[in-house]
């Protein structure tokens, strides 16, 4: 099949990474073309280097225009896809509009990558598009969610249950794996001694990720566990002392027990360097990629009970209530106070779970099965109508 993917942009977000993974797993059996409504971005450049055609329409961030929609429709008419897979709300809506404008007979698949979250956490334009997509879903063949909670919440606001399916994120456990050399190199680079225990967090600095609760928990943990060190990494993280006044005092008090890093290129090496990984999100998560990456790296996790986190971690970590620094600190301390061999065994059990439940090959196969099964059903319905 010739599959055209429509996505909002090609930066290093969860949806973009999953798109890249699905294409990598299925390129041998299917032809893929990617259309970005905005830029090429690092994921687009990576796909191009692998020979995947990437078309960037150059749309402006935060803006949706009819000329952009007509350009998308024109591209889809010329590409003649066997099916179109859209990724995220704006691309879902744009692909729906392009299908109508181009009178495309190809099946349209939507992808929903997040839970509904809190109203103030999402731009009003995104909320509008998310909500109006529910009654517009008639021409859509299938809606692929990456978490069970996202499916339940979207069906509650009118997305059709009959078209929904959950395909979780998949992980490359050869790329993300336990790596003692990476662990040692990270410690040398940042002057962290061998007897210190690294608690890591990888996320964009934003309200949803709730770094203030994590920093308050870190204060408590470091007062109880003498050799604990916290490492936070991601876009905007080094600016936290300036951008989050509610965290400035905690950051100052942690001093040398806290390392704030920008977004890291080799996230696999970073995950392998941690002894414990923490996801502190307050809301809005569906299936957080960072949890699967940490578990694949053999790193045990403490996560808040948002999205499908409890399902992902299973018995191989600790789940705590969101927005509760005390419980978060207690969960982190519990893992830090475990004998190192027990903590390592817990991490390896988590890795085995990812290999069994969330392997990249299995997830890629699930996408192909969904595309082929639903498209086949449409063909059968069309044949019956013709008769």
Tally of strands: 13
Return the domain count.
2
CATH class of the largest domain: Alpha Beta
Work out the strand percent: 15-25%
* Computed Rg: 22 Å
CA distance, first residue to last residue = 26 Å
What are the low-pLDDT stretches, counting only 5+ consecutive residues below 50? 380-387
Mean pLDDT: 92
Largest sheet, order of strands side by side? 3-2-1-4-5-6-7
DSSP helix fraction: 40-55%
Largest sheet, described in full?
A: 7 strands, parallel
Order of helices and strands: EHEHEHEHEHEHEHEHEHHEHEHEHEHHH
Structural class: alpha/beta
CATH level-3 fold name of the largest domain = Rossmann fold
Net shape: elongated
CATH architect. name of the largest domain: 3-Layer(aba) Sandwich
> Count of helical segments?
16
Give the name of the CATH superfamily of the largest domain.
Glycogen Phosphorylase B
Q: Layout of SSEs?
A:
Blueprint: E1 2-7, H1 14-26, E2 31-36, H2 41-49, E3 54-56, H3 66-79, E4 83-87, H4 89-102, E5 108-112, H5 124-132, E6 140-145, H6 148-156, E7 164-166, H7 180-189, E8 197-202, H8 211-224, E9 228-233, H9 240-243, H10 245-254, E10 258-261, H11 267-273, E11 276-279, H12 289-296, E12 301-304, H13 309-313, E13 317-320, H14 325-336, H15 340-357, H16 360-386
Parallel strand pairs: 1-2, 1-4, 2-3, 4-5, 5-6, 6-7, 8-9, 8-11, 9-10, 11-12, 12-13
Helix pairs in contact: 1-16, 3-4, 7-11, 8-10, 8-14, 12-15
């Amino acid at each position: 099949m010739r599959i055209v993917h429509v996505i909002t942009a090609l930066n290093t977000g969860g949806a973009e990474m999953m798109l890249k993974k699905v294409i990598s797993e299925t390129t041998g059996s299917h032809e893929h073309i990617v259309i970005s409504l905005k830029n090429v971005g690092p994921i687009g450049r990576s796909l191009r280097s692998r020979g995947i055609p990437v078309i960037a329409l150059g749309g402006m961030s935060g803006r949706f225009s009819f000329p952009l929609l007509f350009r998308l429709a024109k591209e889809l008419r010329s590409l003649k896809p066997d099916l179109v897979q859209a990724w995220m709300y704006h691309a879902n809506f744009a692909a729906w509009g392009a299908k109508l404008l181009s009178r495309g007979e190809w099946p349209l698949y939507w992808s929903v990558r997040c839970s509904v979250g809190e109203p103030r956490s999402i731009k009003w334009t995104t909320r509008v598009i998310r909500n109006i997509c529910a009654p517009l879903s008639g021409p859509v063949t299938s809606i692929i969610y990456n978490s069970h909670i996202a499916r339940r919440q979207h069906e509650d606001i009118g997305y059709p249950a009959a078209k929904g399916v959950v395909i979780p994120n998949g992980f490359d456990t050869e790329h993300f794996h336990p790596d003692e050399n990476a662990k040692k190199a990270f410690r040398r680079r940042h002057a962290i001694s061998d007897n210190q225990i690294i608690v890591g967090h990888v996320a964009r600095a934003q309200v949803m990720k709730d770094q203030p609760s994590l920093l308050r928990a870190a204060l408590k943990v470091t007062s109880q566990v003498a050799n604990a060190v916290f490492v936070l990494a991601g876009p905007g993280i080094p600016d936290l002392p300036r951008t989050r006044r509610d965290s400035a005092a905690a950051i100052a008090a942690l001093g040398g027990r806290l390392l704030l890093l920008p977004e890291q290129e080799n996230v696999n090496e970073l995950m392998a360097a941690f002894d414990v990984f923490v996801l502190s999100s307050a809301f809005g998560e569906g299936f957080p990629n960072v949890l699967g990456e940490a578990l694949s790296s053999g790193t045990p996790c403490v996560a808040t009970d948002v999205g499908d986190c409890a399902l992902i971690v299973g018995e191989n970590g600790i789940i705590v209530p969101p927005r509760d620094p005390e419980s978060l600190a207690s969960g982190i301390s519990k893992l830090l106070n475990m004998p190192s061999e027990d903590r390592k065994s817990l991490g390896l059990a988590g890795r085995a779970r990812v290999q069994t439940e969330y392997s990249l090959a299995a997830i890629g196969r699930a996408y192909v099965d969904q595309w082929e099964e639903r498209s086949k059903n449409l063909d059968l319905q069309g044949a019956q109508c013709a008769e």
